[in-house]
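The following record pairs a protein chain with its ligand, magnesium ion.
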Amino acid sequence: MLRIDNLSVYYGRVRAVREACLRVEQGEIVTLVGANGAGKTSLLNAVAGLSPVSSGTVQFDGAAIAGLSAHTLARRGLGYVPEGRQTFGAMTVRDNLLLGAFGQARGAGSLLGPAGRFAGTEKVAASLERVYALFPVLRQRSAQRAGSLSGGEQQMLAIGRALMGSPRLLLLDEPSIGLAPQLVREIIALVGRLREAGLTVLLVEQDAVAALRVADRGYVMERGRIVMEGPAAELLASERVRHAYLGTTGVAKA
Ligand SMILES: Nc1ncnc2c1ncn2[C@@H]1O[C@H](COP(=O)(O)OP(=O)(O)O)[C@@H](O)[C@H]1O
Ligand SMILES: [Mg+2]
């Protein structure tokens, strides 16, 4: 479904990603783990059309996607949840979700129009219902300002917003960041539920233990390079991964 071959990302002379190769097949949960600064976000952003692809190729469903706008990618079925959530705190939970459906509604130029009309299209209403079914807490809080949500709820909102575009492949950048350990487990468990709902997921995480537990396969990134890959269970058991990322306490080291 997603094929990345020899991808390099440079910011000026800074080489953030070096000749990375990565695959995600339909129905899989694949995780990309690595310390802070390893290049995970840069790789994900290159797929999402937000970082420059300096060399190499990115294919989605067999078509090259480097250089396509985020909007076009969304229409093709690529959903993206950026690092740091980036929800709109002053807007309601429901309006944040509706923003994710932009492009799906007929006459999508009408975002500025009455939210009721925008939300009224059948497809958008169905998407909203699906997100509320997956995250009941968002339904309960639909009229609240997003800024009043807890960190975990805001992450659910960010994921829910991406789901409003009915993606087939979801890119998740560090959904657990800044959350208490209990919430980390909840959010990661949610990723498992997304797969049950028919999604394919590429999960970027610094918390390697949590991510590898939910994933089918994993890639380990160090200083811009993919240095290991394999079935998640094998990576979890590997001496090198345990030593470098898991520590004895299971907490990812920076
Ligand atoms: N916009 C940018 N401009 C210049 N350097 C950047 C930019 N974004 C990231 N970098 C650098 O690229 C490297 C990889 O960063 P990043 O992809 O954010 O890693 P990770 O997500 O694994 O923490 C780091 O050295 C970082 O400082
Ligand atoms: Mg990052």
